[in-house]
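HUMAN:
Could you generate one sequence with tokenized structure?
ASSISTANT:
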Amino acid sequence: MRVTVVLCLATALVHVLLVFLQVAPPNPISRQYSRQVNAWIFPLFEQNWRLFAPDPESVNRQISARTAHTAPDGTVQVSGWFDLTAVDTAAVRHDPFPSHTAQNMLRRAWISYLETHGGDDHPRSQRALMIQRYLRNIAADRVTAHRHGTFEFIQLRVITVPIAAPHAAGGPGPGAAAQGPADTRYLPWWKVARDARG
């Protein structure tokens, strides 16, 4: 019994120390042991300060998906666009305790895709490839849950509209600050599992 308690206390103290070294400003100790600290912290105990200093969105994004299926006669049938963002918005609206998944999964997957792919949609690392698959799987799962039929390919379209800056006190009304033009980005067609249902 005592051994278990001592082991639990030691583990807790080591964990607190490693988390402290990860979030503290760079210092000789954290630099010297950065490999060990990162091995313990990532990916399960990653820390960030967004709770205390959030980074609000400066754009609105509408992420849509369409699917393609090869018919028995060899023709390719392409579906219409399905608004994935609207599904998430509907799941959150009027819900006093909305799901974290409905609020953030698709949005965070897209932000991670942007961070790892840039503007040319070519993964340059294993992480980028993993994020691409993650985004593809989210889209395929969402389409499958709301449509019937089979599909072998999926494509995403992301429409980004800048959010107008708030008006200054005593200045012109909120409609005076014009929004910038919308940017539409089409991702490549991605192959999905053969048994995907849409």
